Amino acid sequence: MSDSSVLDLIKLRRGCTYCSVRQLCLPGGIGAEELQRLDDIVQRRKPIARGDRLFRIGDPLNAVYVARDGAFKSVSISEDGEEQVLGFHLAGELIGLDALGSGQHRCEGVALTAATVCEIPYDELSRVAGQIPSLQQQLFRVIGQSVDRDQDHLGILVRRQANERIALFLHSLGERYRNVGQSDSQFQLPMSREDIARFLGLALETVSRGFTRLQDDGVIAVTGRRVEIVNAAELLRLAHGAESSAGDGKQKRA
């Protein structure tokens, strides 16, 4: 391999790391030429303002997206205009996979923060993936991760207790931050408490009380939207339906 090929590969890998497309373009076995083919179809978009839409309900599946920075939510709109949050997308996660089945988007992709994204035309991605087996395998893996998140959401909604839903949400969010190369114990919530409430199927006041209780019990520390997981084992225990041992202690002492 020539020096120029090595430098090109390093340059491409650095670019993918910065734009968070590493889920697709950095699987094992992809070489410089194959990586260049993928890089050639990625379209860089201008910055997106908070509240802007990547796609709307009924739009055809023209592309999938990866946020280089910032975060998004997927929402559906009820007949009376009420918004239901279906999922959140962090930097480094594919957005727009809801349209894979029908070819049309079943929800809207809304920017939670100012963001920049890479747009990947779906037809071209499918063509290139069909020619590069390692890329195709990685694409299937990423799609599977998206399905897993949908299942996790359903798992949250069937839990009866609000504290279980909140604890499981924070635990799962930490795992997702770890998967995209960030800290799983200290992270910024890009979504509002209201968004969290709509995602968890809870009242806003219930979510606020839940965060306060977790902080009072020493499970998390919250400053604005900054969350630190102080006691990961206790958070996981709560996510599986156990009452906080710290909270139980307080009740016993009362």
From TrEMBL:
Under InterPro entries, the record lists: cNMP-bd_dom, cNMP-bd_dom_sf, Env_Response_Regulators, HTH_CRP, RmlC-like_jellyroll, Tscrpt_reg_HTH_Crp-type_CS, WH-like_DNA-bd_sf, WH_DNA-bd_sf
Highest rank taxon of the organism: Bacteria
Q: Which residues form the Cyclic nucleotide-binding domain?
A: 26-146
Keyword Ligase annotated: no
Q: Which SUPFAM superfamilies match?
A: cAMP-binding domain-like (SSF51206), Winged helix' DNA-binding domain (SSF46785)
Compartment(s) of residence: Cytoplasm
Keyword Transcription regulation recorded: yes
Sorted alphabetically, the keyword list is: Activator, Allosteric enzyme, c-di-GMP, DNA-binding, Repressor, Transcription, Transcription regulation, Virulence
> What residue stretches are annotated with the HTH crp-type domain?
160-233
Pfam families of this UniProt entry?
cNMP_binding (PF00027), HTH_Crp_2 (PF13545)
Complexes and interactors: Homodimer.
Q: What is this protein called?
A: CRP-like protein Clp
Species, as recorded = Lysobacter brunescens
Kindly list the organism's lineage: Bacteria, Pseudomonadati, Pseudomonadota, Gammaproteobacteria, Lysobacterales
